[in-house]
Amino acid sequence: MRRMYTIDVIPYSSQYAEQTVEMWRNSKEKAIGQKEIHSFDNHIDYLNQILYPQFRVELAVLNQQVVGMIAYNDHEISQLYIHVDYQGQGIGVTLLERAKIQSAGKLTLYTFDVNKNAQKFYEKHGFRIIGRSHDNEEGLLDILYEWVR
Q: Top-level EC class, please (predicted)?
């Protein structure tokens, strides 16, 4: 289904912290089938104190509502989540393409092995599996992907 509205991509601002974390948690919980292990407040602190200072964080916004987010630098995508009601409408592609353009020509990212939709999405957009691990707080198998320009 193609979207019939305009999504704005804006730099992250803490005024969107609660919306961003709520969307992120809901999307992640749906994707992996388990509740987020951190409290809402800890998740906001992580976004503002750790993620935002270390990565470029951009938001997809529709009518002042956060419908997607990406955190990346020139060689890695740390987070990419789309609001559960807006998945499959091209928002993830828009955010992913921004990271590719800004990259040094190669990007890596991890996704959970249980998240089959993410695997299909990344593989469709040129990412290839280069490794696997269990090195995450959720204790789930991770897949390491790489994209090369």
A: transferase
The closest alpha carbon to 89, from 62, 116, 58, belongs to 62
CA 61 from centre of chain = 14
**Burial environment of residue 16 by CB neighbours within 10 A (0 to 12, 13 to 18, 19 or more):** buried
Report the distance separating Cα 61 and Cα 16, nearest Å. 10
Spatial separation of the C-alpha atoms in residues 75 and 32, rounded to whole Å = 25
Domain tally for the chain? 1
Chunked mean pLDDT (size 10), the chain, 149 residues:
75 96 94 89 95 96 95 97 94 96 96 93 97 81 94
Backbone dihedral region for residue 126 (phi beyond 0: left; psi -120 to 50: alpha; all else: beta): left
